[in-house]
Design brief:
This protein is 7% helix and 45% strand. With 662 residues, it is mainly beta. Residues 1-20 and 569-587 have low confidence and may be disordered.
Length: 662
């Protein structure tokens, strides 16, 4: 510390006083004051004076000695001298002590506030925090010399979550003495800082809901894809599932799942306990069919009915339930109850037989389990009139006949198709015959029996193989890149005719193309095309291809022929698409757009496409690549080409087009 020494010498005044007088010399007492005080005017601490016979005379300071260090602490000594009546010199002294006691304390400090930092990199953001979070602040004081420091204590919950306890220490240099009083002049405060790695754009992506079929009566062991977590800044996370059937509760939910519908959640934990979750549904369906057994040759008697109320029976009737014809049908899976019906409609449980049904009647009994799996057996029941109901006779319709007139057009060409035949097959004896083509695309057949049922079948000899564009269209549709498909495209995309469009169709159309197999055609009733894309498959599934005409006449029907696996190419108003096959049998689509003064190339595959430009002599003048999802615009100026014609060579299969530079 620096010591300030100041001396002030006073001018001595000698008073000649009567020795017989009353003489008193008064000095101010010692005093201790705060070092922050302004002590320029020392008279504020008192003045010395002489009192003689009631007369006061003020005495000026004779000498002032100042001893103060750089913390403002020290002493100021004031000395006075005076000559008494006996000519003796008297002196007195006042000591003013400057103290820094309580000059700096907690009340003078503003401590930093607690803070929570959530970001991709909270550690870096901590370095840039501002007031009032960054550090302590205090009032300036000439009697104190605060010095600042801190220490950190880290407590990590997980990789995304850290609690930092930052202890701030302020040491007053003017007070702190490590040996005399080590606890004085030290001020401590702990600031709580939470560092959380977080991303406002996080997502959790569940695998697609799944339907699994099995012949097992109890369940199936499944391998289920894990959920995925998406973060722009790759923050740490943990994914688990709450499935009661999973082998583990981690991100994958594989395990043994019993028959039925199951729903559970994938849950992602991140950023100090925050959660995201997505729902996953899986349905385990047993597709094992029941085993049907029908009673054979059941004889049933009609009951008399008085329909006009005259007291005499004039009609016969009997109600037969499909379950009455069951002869021990069963399901091999225990507890899988079965139902009986006369058709695939479960509500068709009973039939009414009357006099017109006398004799043998062939019926089909459908046995359906609770999962909708079904099988059938056929039997005959014999209706008899043993009660003698008058005028109860079988009505024959064998002599009634009708004709059919079908017109067919090709959806692609909007004209009559070439090399097409329509065949009818009798459902009773399996005899078959073809309709006669009376005009191009118009078919007719007469003399069909009203008592018979016929199945309709179309045979098209036109052969075609789906091309790469067709496969790419289906791939884009499955990836939800086709926004408004037409109903005809939806019908053509159901390659395996299972009333849904999925990866099985994509595999089949790709396999057929690789083996040069055709996909066939679908015959569509014209009125069916009034359905939209969402309902067309269900409508097509419910179409009946059986002729069952009870009245004489001509039955007319219009059809549209749609090639399976062939779709209308997706066009670009200002260009076209080129599809090429890679070495691993996958496909890429290159978009080529011709603008007024330039050609643009782009693609959406995960490969780099090599491109080159040659002049008409075959000399290479430019070479470049188009990266993944990259868009390249080519013009004469950007390529620095001279005026003239050039060849653009691009893609895996090295397609070539002519371009001109002007």
């Amino acid at each position: 510390m620096q010591l300030l020494l100041k001396f002030f010498i006073c001018i001595l005044f000698v008073y000649k006083l009567n020795s017989q007088s009353n003489f008193n010399f008064h000095c101010p007492g010692n005093i201790t004051v705060n070092c922050n005080i302004d002590y320029k005017n020392l008279d504020q601490f008192g003045k010395a004076y002489v009192d003689q016979n009631g007369l006061q005379v003020w005495i000026k300071d004779c000498k002032v000695i100042t001893e103060i260090n750089d913390c403002g602490i020290g002493e100021i000594s004031r000395i006075w001298e005076v000559q008494d009546p006996d000519l003796n010199w008297q002196s007195c002294k006042q000591i003013i002590t400057l103290s820094n006691a309580n000059a700096f304390g907690y009340n003078d400090i503003t401590w930093p506030r607690d803070i929570t930092i959530e970001s991709c990199d909270p550690e870096s953001d901590l370095k840039n925090v501002s007031k009032p979070f960054d550090r302590p602040y205090w009032k300036t004081n000439k009697c104190a010399k605060p010095m600042l420091g801190f220490s950190d204590s880290r407590h990590k919950v997980n990789e995304s979550c850290t609690k930092l306890l930052r202890t701030w220490k302020i040491l007053d240099w003017c007070v702190y003495d490590a040996y005399k009083n080590p606890n004085a002049g030290i001020f401590l405060y702990t600031q709580t800082i939470k560092l959380i790695k977080n991303d406002s754009a996080v997502k959790i992506l569940c695998p697609n809901d799944t339907v699994v079929t099995t012949y097992d009566c109890k369940g199936v062991q499944l391998s289920i894809d894990p959920a995925k977590f998406s973060s722009q800044c790759n923050i740490p996370f943990i994914i688990y599932n709450d499935s009661e059937h999973a082998d583990t509760n981690l991100s994958g939910a594989s395990g043994y799942y019993p028959l039925g519908d199951h729903k559970f959640y994938y849950i992602a934990e991140y950023a100090c306990g925050k959660e995201l979750k997505c729902e996953y549904n899986i349905s385990i369906k047993n597709i094992k069919q029941p085993t049907p057994y029908c009673k054979v040759g059941v004889i049933i008697d009609l009951m008399p009915v008085d329909s006009n109320g005259d007291g005499m029976p004039d009609e016969g009737m009997v109600e037969v339930w499909a379950s009455d014809l069951n002869h021990g049908s069963f399901h091999s899976c225990p507890g899988n109850n079965i139902n009986f019906s006369f058709s695939e409609d479960l509500l068709d449980k009973n039939k009414i037989f009357t006099c017109k049904d006398l004799g043998e009647n062939e019926v089909t009994i459908y046995v359906t389990d609770k999962n909708g799996n079904k099988d059938f057996c056929k039997t005959k029941i014999i209706i008899q009139n043993n009660t003698g109901i008058p005028n109860c006779k079988k009505t024959f319709v064998n002599n009634k006949k009708y004709g059919v007139n079908f017109s067919v057009k090709n959806f692609e060409t909007k004209s009559a198709p070439q090399s097409i035949k329509i065949k009818l097959t009798n459902t009773k004896d399996n005899s078959s015959f073809f309709l006669q083509e009376i005009n191009q695309g118009e078919f007719e057949l007469k003399d069909l029996q009203c008592s018979e049922d016929y199945n309709i079948e179309v045979i098209v000899n036109d052969k075609f193989v789906s091309n790469v564009e067709d496969i790419l269209w289906l791939k884009r549709y499955l990836n939800h890149k086709i926004e408004s498909p037409r109903p005809t495209q939806i019908l053509a995309a159901d390659i395996n005719s299972d009333s849904k469009i999925d990866n099985q169709d994509l595999l089949l159309i790709s396999k057929n193309r690789n083996t040069n197999h055709t996909n066939g055609y679908k015959l569509i009733p014209e009125e069916l095309l009034n359905n939209n894309s969402n309902s067309i498959l269900d409508a097509y599934t419910n179409v009946s291809w059986k002729l069952n005409i009870a009245e004489e006449g001509i039955y007319q029907k219009k059809f549209t022929l749609i090639p399976i696996g062939r779709f209308q190419s997706i066009k670009n108003q200002a260009g076209f698409f080129v599809t090429q096959e890679t070495s691993d049998n996958s496909f890429i689509e290159i978009r080529l757009t011709q603008n007024q003064n330039s050609v643009s190339l782009s693609h959406d595959s995960k490969v780099n496409l090599s491109c080159a430009i040659y002049d008409l002599t075959g000399r290479e003048v430019r070479k470049f690549q188009i990266g993944e999802n990259q868009y390249v615009e080519l013009s004469g100026n950007s390529l620095q080409l001279s005026t003239g014609f050039y060849i653009l060579d691009f893609g895996i299969e090295k397609k070539k087009i002519f371009i001109a530079a002007e």
